[in-house]
């Protein structure tokens, strides 16, 4: 995920983190259909395709992840508003600093709370 985000710079990256028993093992990237920098828009068909892929390998979606190429890993108002499901966590990778920063949040309506993230690889 960190690699994918780096490759897509200066554009944002978005995808699902999935696994079993809250243990993240898989990254499924989705195509960013946004034409403006610092935002993303994923077409419904790409979301469905990604969800199907995760289902086929028998995993559950744990988090929806995206990158912040130049800003801190804090959810923006738009991030909160467009987050689809409070049972899915939000992961943000920031490339603002030399070492990418990863943060994970529980999203509840328009509020967020930082939670620890467990990534297996
Ligand atoms: Zn964001």
Automatic annotation (TrEMBL):
Keyword set includes Repressor: no
Gene Ontology annotations of biological process type: proteolysis
Gene3D superfamilies named among the record's database cross-references: Cytidine Deaminase, domain 2 (3.40.140.10)
Protein name, entry field: Mov34/MPN/PAD-1 family protein
A Pfam match: Prok-JAB
InterPro entries: JAB_dom_prok (IPR028090), MPN (IPR037518), VirAsm_ModProt (IPR051929)
Domain MPN, chain residue ranges per copy: 1-118
UniProt GO MF annotations: metalloexopeptidase activity; zinc ion binding
Keywords recorded for this protein, A-Z: Hydrolase, Metal-binding, Metalloprotease, Protease, Zinc
């Amino acid at each position: 995920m960190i690699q994918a985000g780096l490759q897509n710079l200066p554009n944002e990256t978005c995808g699902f983190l999935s696994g079993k028993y809250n243990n993240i093992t898989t990254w499924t990237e989705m195509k960013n259909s946004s034409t403006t920098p610092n935002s993303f828009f994923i077409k419904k068909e790409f979301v469905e395709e990604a969800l199907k892929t995760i289902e086929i390998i028998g995993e559950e979606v744990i988090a929806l992840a995206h990158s912040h190429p130049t800003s801190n890993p804090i959810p923006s108002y738009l991030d909160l508003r467009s987050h689809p499901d409070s049972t899915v966590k939000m992961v943000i990778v920031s490339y603002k600093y030399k070492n990418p920063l990863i943060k994970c949040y529980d999203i509840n309506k328009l509020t967020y709370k930082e939670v620890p993230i467990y990534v297996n690889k």
